[in-house]
Amino acid sequence: MQAKAPPACRQAGLKMAPQKNTSPSRISDKLFQYDEKLRCIYPVIAGIDEAGRGPLAGPVVAAAVILPKGLIISGVRDSKQIQENTRKKLFWDIVSNADSIGIGIIDAKTIDKSNILKSTKLAMEAAVKDLSQIPDILLIDAVRLPGIADSAQKSIIRGESVSASIAAASIIAKTVRDDIMLDYHEKYPFYNFKEHKGYATKEHVECIRLHGPCPIHRKSFRKVMDLKLPLE
Questions:
Q1: Average pLDDT taken over every residue of the chain
Q2: Structural domain range at position 154
Q3: Nearest 5 degrees, angle CA 21-CA 24-CA 25?
Q4: Each residue of 44-71: pLDDT tens digit?
Q5: What is the number of structural domains in the chain?
Q6: pLDDT tens digits, one per residue of 182-225
Q7: Domain with 115 in it: what CATH number?
Q8: Cα-Cα-Cα-Cα dihedral sign, residues 183, 107, 50, 115
Q9: 71 close to 32: Cβ distance less than 8 angstroms
Q10: Does residue 147 form part of some domain?
Q11: Coil, strand or helix: which one is 163?
């Protein structure tokens, strides 16, 4: 038997998926309900999230996603909880249905010149400016963006577990960044970026120790700078 949609969702015209325990569909429904309630005050919501704050190599990538009213994409949730094949499918579901998507990319050289937090905010601001419309509110995972003045802002800790718009942005950002790292793997095959995507795995750290850092490594990160290299 299919569960009935809560009153707020019925009023918003949401079509609820069948609910089973804590399945991905049920999690998605909850995240989309959060956004629908907020649309009563802010009709155009942009969710913002990033991928790549922690790695030792590659860019930090941010995405801003505006989803249409009344939409549920089953399975949308925190990108870190989704297997790669499923995440790819959800990526295209989001791209096909979103009202607007913006992307911001800040490379390793810029990260080294400032720091990862400032670079993350720059990427997020670039993603917002890349949108085709001005949102009424920005729902941002954990931070605030001082460079954006045209929209209200709401910072949400672990926002990808609260808002569907932020969760969708996390999926877009993660997929875009992973594809960038696959391209870098072709250019710098010694580091096996296709497996670890630049994160500080034991294999990656050993590759840096053996070959030294390459142009996309973040030289300001301690695990890169503190390694004893072969020529020392």
A1: 89
A2: 7-187
A3: 80
A4: 999 999 999 999 999 999 999 999 999 9
A5: 1
A6: 999 999 999 999 999 999 999 999 999 999 999 999 999 988 98
A7: 3.30.420.10
A8: positive
A9: yes
A10: yes
A11: coil
